[in-house]
Amino acid sequence: MNEDLRRLQAELSEARRLLDARLRATELTERRLAEARADARALAQTNEKLNVTLRQARESLLALREQLEALGRPPASHGTVVGRAGDELDVMVGGRLLRVGCVPDLPADSIALGAAVLLNEAMAVVGGAGRPEAGTLLRVREVLPDGRILASTGGDEDVVLLRAPELAGADLGVGDSVLADRQALVAHARIARSDVEDLRLEEVPNVGWADIGGLDEQIGLIRDAVELPFTQRALFDEYGLAAPKGVLLFGPPGCGKTMIAKAVANSAGSYFLNVKGPELLDKYVGETERQIRVIFGRARELAERGRPVIVFFDEMDALFRTRGSGVSSDVESTVVPQLLAEIDGVEALANVIVIGATNREDLIDPAILRPGRLDVKIKLERPSPAGAAEIMGKYLSAEVPLNAAETDAAGGPAAHRAALVAAAVDALFERSDATRFVEVTYASGAREVLHVGDFVSGAMLASVVARAKKAAIKDVLAGREPGLRRAHVLAACRAEIAENAELPNTTNPDDWARVSGRRGERIVFLRTLQDARALDVG
């Protein structure tokens, strides 16, 4: 019995030992399995990194292969398509006309005439080349019915150009400039010409004949010269009367010459080239003459469109002085003949009118002023009292606010404005000691006293009204009664006189007199009579 018990205990102990050994083996296996799983995850991450590295290396190799292939690829040729023959194209390449095919995936009928293309080493069209950025600048002389362009090279040669796709729908006109490939005879783009196009007034000045006061007679003369020959062309042809070639507007500064030019541009329905005389002067010999040729060349091209062209020379005396009168240079000896050749040279100047403005007509070369060149000469005098009242009425319009109390006392806005205009005109044109301006001494020894009214201009009247408006605005800001008052206008007149009191001082009295519009006996001395400090300018 005891022997069996001991045997059972020994078997039980052995079983426990075996179970513990198995448990230890299981724990070791699980630990090794966990380590193996961790190693597998690490290997997977390493494998992913290796895959990424391989992809990057493959992409780098492909890029390097493409670069090597590009370096070893023969250069492509640029050409321009000038014709089509079935599945082949006529391409101008480096001055040679070639008939070439296209690669299979580029049908010939998909390429427009005038398009720039690329050709491979086998001279097959492989794609487009884009628009050329440089070329020859040509001038359009005529647009043919089929859309082709007849262009001038600037000399005696004319060429016919195809239109590139970029110009297929462009509205080209005579005189426009186009960028062209002279070898391929294809126009690629329209180019703005800064040398002459800047002279054109694209925006019509907002000045009409009704905005000009005191110059009814002069307005009638210039309208007869500028508008009548074109609006009544049939009558002029019936009587065999040609339109005048030019008009000269001369007179003292500030008397409406430029305003008339603006009104001409506004009403004539014509092309208007505005040339500022001093801007054309150039230090390089022949450059001024070239610019005059360009201006008149452009005027002739615009005239071919059927509308009159007006070439306006402001400050004309700066360019076309009497030949031989130059002090440091004698540029007028070539500039004046250039203008004369353009006005009435061998090449006809049809539908083009030259208008010149100056306040020193005595400096302009007489050959320019003779009949047949500047046919119509219109002098713009300083305004009379009636003309000054009309001019001030233009500036003192119904939109200007008036003082309510003075308006009621005057009997209404219209009567008040008339009273203000009359007060200003009386103050400026009064012949009294208070308005004595300068005393001039003539070469004969005679003396004459000139008053403020002898120097009134449209610009001065506009300045008087502007001063009065500014004074009215300052009163409003100061909290006083709003509206323009008589005191504002009279104070503006006194301030204008005071501001101009010292202007006659000059080392050459006769030159000052001529600029101011005084003609006649030579003036050798002048003395100012106004004391600006003594004037009450309000």
Please characterize this protein's 3D structure.
The chain is of the alpha/beta class and about 550 residues long. The chain has 5 domains: about 1-75; about 75-130, OB fold (Dihydrolipoamide Acetyltransferase, E2P) (Beta Barrel), CATH 2.40.50.140; about 135-190, OB fold (Dihydrolipoamide Acetyltransferase, E2P) (Beta Barrel), CATH 2.40.50.140; about 210-380, P-loop containing nucleotide triphosphate hydrolases (Rossmann fold, 3-Layer(aba) Sandwich); about 385-535, no CATH class. It is built from 16 helices and 18 strands. It has helices at about 1-70, 195, 215-225, 230, 235-240, 255-265, 275-280, 285-305, 330-345, 365-370, 385-395, 405-410, 415-430, 460-475, 485-500, 510-515, and strands at about 75-85, 90-95, 95-100, 115-120, 125-130, 135-145, 150, 160-165, 175-180, 185-190, 245-250, 270-275, 310-315, 350-360, 375-380, 435-440, 445-450, 525-530. It has a 5-stranded antiparallel beta sheet with strand order 3-2-1-4-5, with no helix packed on it. The termini are far apart. Residues about 530-538 have low confidence and may be disordered.
